[in-house]
Write a structure and sequence with these properties.
4 copies of one chain form a homotetramer. Chain A is of the alpha/beta class and 384 residues long. The first copy, chain A, has helices at residues 8-23, 32-44, 102-119, 141-147, 205-223, 261-281, 301-315, 332-338, 369-382, and strands spanning 48-50, 57-61, 69-75, 126-132, 156-167, 171-173, 177-179, 182-190, 194-195, 230-239, 245-246, 249-258, 285-294, 297-298, 320-322, 341-349. The longest helix of chain A has 21 residues, at 261-281. The two termini of chain A are 28 Å apart. In chain A, 59% of the residues are buried.
Chain lengths: 384, 384, 384, 384
């Protein structure tokens, strides 16, 4: 896609930046070198840096009107994955790699920062630039920044993801639920063990667990609105030590996903009710604990329609794609729980980006970076 | 088996009697013609007839010592089955037939009555002769007679069954549980119906029923002592009317069997607990009703060992067989709940009796009737 | 909503027509009086009537350009429901009523026909007016018309539903899956019956059915993409006759819904695989038969975007609503399997239409009929 | 129970021997010190020692007639249990203890050996004295001795167990199945893992395992004759590693018990059929492996009736008890698979023996040892 709008220099530098980040990936919460790079650049651009806890960096640029403030966000952390492949700028940090594309997000937002520092006179609202730590883990870096007040004067927030699952040349989003919640759970079933030859003197927690796991299926099949999406997966079951002893307990752990807070609540509430009730029916004791992760990412309709119109006007009707929600998660959802805004996929799937996110051979297609830069700039310019 | 002990006349008449009963079968509770026959015979034999409600007949013979009283019991009812076959004395009552052998029991006890009326001087205890109505149905004829006081002065009671499932030439019993309880149940699962396309707005009673039925298996597999025997069978399930409507309710009916009162209690209690508990876990309401039938038939050890010694002494060690319990039921169990006693199988399986009880071609082997008569007489003679 | 576009006369007559149809509802396949009314009107308007089997009526109007042909469709059948309420134009046909709003659809399309007969010079494409019988039943009236060739020269087809589930004042659609498939199924589980006290000599089809039903839940919870929507509901289970007999067979009937042909295929294939496989594992024989109903209604993206732009331009951006799919079905889906097109909801939910479709108190809000008329007209005018 | 039959000296020495063995317990297969003690004693008694692999010792005593040969067996191994309590002759071998009573069995058979060496002229048959290693483990010491030919010339074999589960003062056995088989199993369910948020791309082995485990219950509840006894217990389930990954496999291990070879076969065959069939239905692969342990111990009727008559004659009718089978196992079953014989419980339950076998506080009641000695002697004397 031709993109004269963003000039050659800006693009060249963005790609150089991205490769630097790619070679120097840092794990969630440890992005100190990355932050130093960002700070240096923002300082060089004379962009004000707000006072937030590292390793996140928050820049601020006053708008020409300044009666509104929007935040643009990039996540900056890498993953504990060993990169595979032979490109010249492979990760130099063994066991750590930018296998989700956050290097591209960071470079994009730095380019946007540079553009704003030069062409700020074209932009009415104040701009908060969020270079956010720790997207990939719990506790979430977004949640932390919000608690520190990053959204205090923000009217709307926008974020992007360079997205392998969407065709290169397309940019889009949903007008509502877009990415799933991620919560983990632990179920403890307390029975009463004994010898395998005398089951009648025991409460067999393995047998009880089969009823519990079967009942979890029915939450999806019978209790969730079929229009909604949700997943409950037991990832691990631990019970017993040997052939002939019925154990005291069975422990199940797993994950649940849903696209709306209501669906998350349905899944969790039914999971507790069924586990406790079924265990009790069998004289066992069931307990469910949730390890709350990321809420579902739900775009705000007004902002998502604004973004749609930006895409249609700035890139063409053909570029816009109404996205199907995905069951992956993203901590940008925290921002959208607090303020209006929208999250946007910039498609890059194709020959140059053919492995899914988190795959050891994942790569971004750098050719879509200019569009990502342009998208943020257009949002900044058009937001009222 | 040769049997000079009981004389030719007695045997000939017993077989004639049996064929008369076979030709004139009457359903449970309607054995009036049969009773008239029995009363006439007892009166002819000058045997006292006690005053009990028809259609049962209770005879009484004073013993030489008379410090103890034993009851000998025959059941007299037939079954609502159309007999098949071509023997000359087929049932003349369409749709009703002695397909369980009670005709043989009645004839046997009449022969015993005749012997006692002649040789009473050889018998020390008083003898109560119970010709009992309604063994095959609920409410039980045995239970009814007991409530009328038939066991009041009885010290012990003995009964026999001519048994196709045991080899001809063998006579035997257990020293404990011998025949199963029979109780029926009805489970009502009250859910909340709705359209098949919107399961999340319903409580689907058919789905809940699958958990309940699965849990019933676990009562047998996990809650009953493996040494004990028990069965829970759902015979019928009724739920719903059409393709696309989730119904409000599911109704299950079935039967339970066990060999000891403790096992019966375990099955019933767990059935209630699991049904109610599981239904509640799924927001449904489960209710279990029992249609109490026949208790398990459990021989009393002292009396069963007495019978074993009678068999060994009067018929030989080879004739005695320690019986495996059977899952069929028999309302003789009511007598054994109230008084000591034992129930005995007189084997007749073989060429002349090859179809199981209740089969439309079932027949007794009349050649074992002399042994049945002799068994009762020996019990009467040897009981102290 | 003010609507000067469609003149007073047209609106008044549409409402009168609608009330006439409401008072004279006819069941699916029996819409002969309704068709007579339609034919008379079209003839009065000098609109050509194409030769299709009754009780559907197909009108044809030549466009000014005529190089393209679009079809506009109304369904005309009523439901076997007894209407409740007290409006002056209640159904006069006992047990039959327009409880889905097809009376409104028919009146709308007649008004469109009249407008076209007058203002046809404003419309470039040829217009096929489909007054379709038998939307509510299987076999589908749409399918029948297609087989008779109604779509032969049609380039695109559009249909509407006055929709209680959408707020009055909104008009909208999806850009893909919009309404569910409807297929019914019958599962026969052939076991081997016997006496309830001897389960080991049987293959208990009721028990096997519990595994089959449980496994059906897992098709939704484990085999359907969580992003997709699907339902499998067992509506009825029939097995057994009495307490103590394990029956030979269990029969389950139910319905399945999904929003895409791929999801329908997944549900059906897995249902067959699991039923047959599980039954076989238990020595039973499982057979699944599908009663194929209506395919999922999936709008074609190009035509749905065209309709979106028509709505935005003719009614305003505020009126357009991107619709969430619904699990109800609609045989308009057959047209969309054959030709490009889109189905549109005209919102009428509110005080005047507060009961859901098929409810005995369901009513349409006649105030939205002018918009429905206008929508069809604008589609006809703008289609290229 | 007074027991003048066996003289004071013999009893005193038996108790001393028993305490020696109790203080010097050895694990299965390692009974070398125990064997040295036995050999020394037999040699001192001038009893011929047959040539069998240690650590078992086989003695041989010629009978007066010698036309028949019977074997009497004691098992000699201890358990890997740390004894609790404060008796003066506690185990001196840390972590190893005679917590099943084999010390008593060994001392009993040594006393029998001494009696035979003195009073051999009262005994007609040849006597093989089997001091058997490794009863508690698989592979079984009995099986090993049989393969070495220990039963070659043996006409019948008898063994005892001092039995805590039976009242002191009672001696008894069954006339058929008496102790359960012990076989272990391993079930591997091979599914196909993936991310917890995308169950539709996996074959979830944990979910499949719930159907398999549920189906195992039905083997007991629906496929085993209710009169028979059987247990299938899953002791351990292993599947998965973390919250959000559906694993490739689930592994179940457990134990099965039954009282007859036919029941064992039913359990095993159905387990294989159901596991393989259910897994296949779900696109997984199920494999069942059995670790064959001990067959069910089934007394031979002729020999068990012989033992019953010995008990009745030598101890009194009150002492004999017809035993209910137990679900524990015993490798004496191997002998009974090869030769006629019977296994006998010598009751010792009461104040002096109140903890069950294998409990760390288990103890035998030494006062029943004289009866055990007498029982073996009477069997030897009366066998013809």
């Amino acid at each position: 896609m031709q993109n004269i709008y963003v000039d050659e220099h800006l693009i060249k530098q963005a790609i150089e930046d991205r490769r630097f980040f790619h070679q120097h990936p840092e794990l969630s919460g440890e992005e100190f070198e990355t932050c130093a790079f960002i700070r240096n650049r923002l300082e060089a651009l004379k962009i004000e840096i707000l006072d937030f806890e590292p390793p996140s960096v928050i820049g601020f640029i006053k708008g020409t009107k300044g009666n509104k403030t929007i935040a643009l966000r990039a996540d900056i952390d890498a993953l504990p994955i060993t990169e595979e492949g032979d490109k010249p700028y492979l990760s130099k940090n063994p066991g750590v790699a930018h296998m989700c594309g956050h290097d591209g997000h960071t470079a994009t937002l730095l380019a946007v920062a540079e553009w704003l520092s030069i062409k700020g006179n074209e932009v009415e609202p104040n701009i908060v630039l969020i270079f956010q730590s720790a997207e990939e883990i719990t506790p979430s870096g977004a949640d932390r920044l919000i608690k520190q007040g990053v959204l205090e004067n923000v009217d709307a927030i926008f974020g992007i993801h360079l997205w392998q699952g969407m065709e290169k040349g397309k940019i889009g989003l949903t007008h509502g639920p877009m990415m799933a919640s991620i919560d983990d759970f632990e179920i403890m079933i307390q029975g009463s063990g004994g010898h395998g030859s005398m089951p009648h003197e025991t409460v067999d927690p393995i047998y009880v667990a089969t009823h519990v796991i079967q009942s979890l299926q029915s939450i999806i099949s019978r209790k969730l609105n079929p229009i909604d999406s949700g997943v409950i997966s037991v990832g691990k079951i631990e019970a017993g030590t040997t052939y002939n002893i019925i154990p005291d307990t069975a422990k199940l752990i797993g994950t649940i996903r849903a696209l709306t807070p209501e669906a998350v609540a349905t899944l969790q509430n039914k999971m507790v009710q069924l586990t406790e009730g079924i265990c009790k029916a069998f004289d066992a004791k069931g307990q469910v604990d949730f390890i709350i992760g990321t809420p579902p990412l739900v775009n705000h309709a007004k902002e998502s329609h604004f973004v749609e119109s930006v895409i249609r006007q700035s890139f063409g009707d053909d570029v816009f794609e109404l996205v199907d929600p995905v069951m992956g998660g993203e901590d940008f959802s925290y921002y959208l729980q607090n303020k209006p805004g929208a999250f946007i996929f910039v498609g890059m799937g194709g020959e140059k980006s053919m492995y899914p996110h988190h795959h050891p051979k994942f790569d971004i297609d750098e050719e879509v970076i200019p569009d990502a830069i342009k998208l943020f700039i257009e949002i900044a310019k058009k937001y009222q």
